[in-house]
Protein 1
Amino acid sequence: MMFEFVIWLTLLLMTKPSDTKPLRSEIKNEIHFDSNITFEKRGLHEEAPLFYIEDRHPAEFFYSDPYYPSPLGGRIDHVWQKAYDKARKIVEKMSITEKVNLTTGTGWGSGPCIGNTGGVPRLGIPNLCLQDGPNGVRYTDYVTNFPSGLAAGTTFNKELIHQRGKAIGKEHKAKGVHMVLGPVVGPIGLKAAGGRNWESFGADPYLQGIAGAATVEGLQQQGVLSIVRHFIGNEQEHFRQVGEWDDNGWDKLDESISSNIGDRAMHEIYLWPFADVIRSGAGGIMCSYNQVNNTYACENSYLLNYLLKEELGFQGFVVSDWGAQHTGVYSSLSGLDMTMPGEIFDDWLTGKSYWGPLLTRAVYNGTIPQQRLNDMVTRIIAPWFAIETLKLPSEDNIPNFSSWTYHTYSQKFPYQHFGPIVEQNFHQNARSTFSEEVALNVAREAIVLLKNDGHNLPVDVGDGIKRILIAGVGAGPDSKGFDCKDQRCTDGVLTSGWGSAAVNNPYVITPYEAISERARSLGMVVDFSNENWNLDHVSELADYADLSIVVVNSDGGEGFIEVDNNYGDRNNFSLWHNGDNLIKHISERCRKTIVVVNAIGPVNMEKWIDNENVVGVIYMPPLGQFVGKALMEIIFGDVNPSGKLPFTIAKKKSHYVPIVDDLSKNNDPQDNFDRDIYIDYRFFDKHNIKPRFEFGFGLSYTKFELSNLNILEINSPTEYLPYPEDYLPIYRTIEDDVCDPEDALFPHEEFDPVPGFIYPYLYNEDVRSLPDEDDFDYPKGYNTYFKTTPPLSGGFGGNPALWEILFSVKAKVKNIGKYKGGYVGQLYIESPSTLVSSPAKVLRGFDKVFLEPGESKSIHFDILHRDLSIWDVESQQWIIQTGTYKVYIASSSRRVELCGEIDIGI
Ligand code: NOJ
């Protein structure tokens, strides 16, 4: 009863008339702003509401409302409507088992790719291949190991990020992959120690959204469908799956961790980039391992049916992370459309699945409406018709490699050691000048110069540098080579973090190789030491050096791999391999020490950052195979650094959000996201904490001057969004199949089953024991009444008016230094606190330009309706508040260069 009341109330609130009358706005350009003033404006008493009470279980406060049924696709946008029409024409020709085949993976290792659906050979549809991943093609050869997602974010260069997407897409296409498991826009980077932050673009939703969308477009332009991961709240690796963490030694874990997210943070932070990628046409979205508000993400009807498919208007399909499905019928009714790799988590090779034959059975006995199955399959097929550059895979367009062996010939199912010997790997060279150029350019632009006291960088022979020392294990190759499985080796330069997003290197240019070659060509003497524990030796070498370059590292990755007690997430922010001591010893003897931090996230620099002999500090995220070349070019000044920190580096560990890694309180760990919307720099601003280096920071060898701020109104703001258009009609409906379970029997006469392979068929005993739908205990709130367009919805990523440009902002930037170089203009907005308090600043634009000395260019930003909106939890709407908005053009989140105001009123 209570629950129905809540639904009724929500719907009532959602349909409340909206005030869309234009508001008046008054603009002031270039108001004086003292960038030294603190950003603290709001007291602690106004902190985000306290979500839970200590001695009560958070599940009492964090739960997910049900939302059914799963919305039908094809009701938004005429192009997609037509695509659905075409897809339905195909789906209506399929039998129930053929449909089920497309929704269910064939099992781990049962096919060439990381994930393989069943095919529909009768209609010419092959097994569809899903492959990691976001930084290049996983588990194969002759591909490029691209700079990480984090590196892409660090460039703050939209066009380059787009090019990177294209290059990655092109290589997947060359290998015959159909769908790429990337990009990653979750984790968002809430936790600085999160093991997978290097896969996504940086700790800010706006940055993630722009970079994610540019990547999706790039990938799909090359003919591969993009599956954006992980939806949602997958901010740490600890406790993401029970089986995995049992193996890791936490055998008390009962359920995966629950990420408990408040509604405002859900909208303004975690959903934000997903709205962008949906708008850019992403065909698939991967739901994550964790629970969200105490329901598993892949069976959370509120998340999948409501937020994703209804509110954000997602028209593609939802695929589970590998083993993230926990129920059969519930997950389907809750909006999951495809399960991967097919089996139940960790029951790999057993052939046991929640779907496959069980889905067939649930459809035959009427538990799952056929309409739901039809929508699942249509969602999988429609994107191939909706996106101009995609084409539904056919049987002559299949993978030319195997993820499970690198040999040219091997058994057909190498993982199962089963089947005849066939040609598995055609060793197709996917690389091209284009991908190498893009990979190198991203690496160059992702290097961040943090300190350059005395301008010792770039290195110039004229400065009397005749003998250099290159030190640290991070400067050279790992003793185990460049390609330990999933890049779990950390005793060398890090080309990536570890896990499913790692790619085999075709070769690596190490810092030692590139720097020493260049130094030699300049007539320098080069010493090298990678013995991080042999400090006497390295100190002696430092004594002779005019300049030392110390490469230190800190690594992390996905939770299925443990390295030195780091179970995916990092245990701390210390440098690995005795890095602090190494820096200490070298800098004691060498007055010009340059520290290069090669890390998957922030590290603690406090022990040495103020040391006057540490004259230079560089941060580089995982940069892929060209890491050493890019670093060398920065050090010797061929390239001027233009990367900006995509996260804040704190002075104290306590300023970061901790990883939940303790099961002593409960065995179903609860992770309350009580930083609310104040993640990363927003938190430091709110509490007036001085970080070591702030988000958006990065030095250049040249200097820039900003002027001429010009804000222009393009469209009048409105307080509320206008009603969207009604959902479009569905022209073609698929008739229910006449259900005769005998049709679904295993066709033994046609082929013998492969062990562990998941088929959609029923066995005689299944058919005999089909239970009645009435026996099924439907989830709370289950119903089959399709809704009309919710007021927030109606377009890709939400109400189309959210993307309306309200203001355009321009400024002039001039290079007033001696070097040519790139400048990243960053636009931050401070909202009024008329209805609710908001962060002192949020990123709402960035524009990168390259300038010769003395040259000026204009930087440009569009402020959209959504950029000025706050999510109002009570009315469940995006609202533009009345009051004064400050517009900052800045060189980092704390270095404001120009400031304007937009006063919005009635
Ligand atoms: C689990 C990871 O979380 C996901 O990102 C990846 O795509 C799958 N494994 C497949 O490798």
Protein 2
Amino acid sequence: MQDCIFCKIINGDFNTEFVLENEYAVVFKDINPKADTHLLVVPKKHVESLNELNDEALLGKLMMTVKAAAQKAGLKSYRTVINTGKEAGQEVFHLHIHILAGNIRL
Ligand code: AMP
Ligand code: ZN
């Protein structure tokens, strides 16, 4: 998607450092962290939100990526959040899962 900030990040346009990358997703630090550790797990495929996701297997892969990223970051305890739709606080319309740990403010 041309005007999607997360597609651009996945594309390497901003030289964003990936905490983890696999076949399905990238994981990078949130630019405006709402916790001591705040990561975003983002599917490589552009899907606007959970409401547009039909691929059950991809959701499983994303959740396993959450676990792998948390382990890599040394997190034993963490919160996962998916905002779906504007009124729920979704700002970037490319599906992503927040991982938050330590002094969570979200
Ligand atoms: P949401 O409100 O669930 O759509 O979350 C979008 C998140 O993306 C927010 O927490 C933003 O701080 C974060 N964000 C927006 N632009 C960037 C960026 N260029 N790099 C990293 N995180 C970003
Ligand atoms: Zn996108």
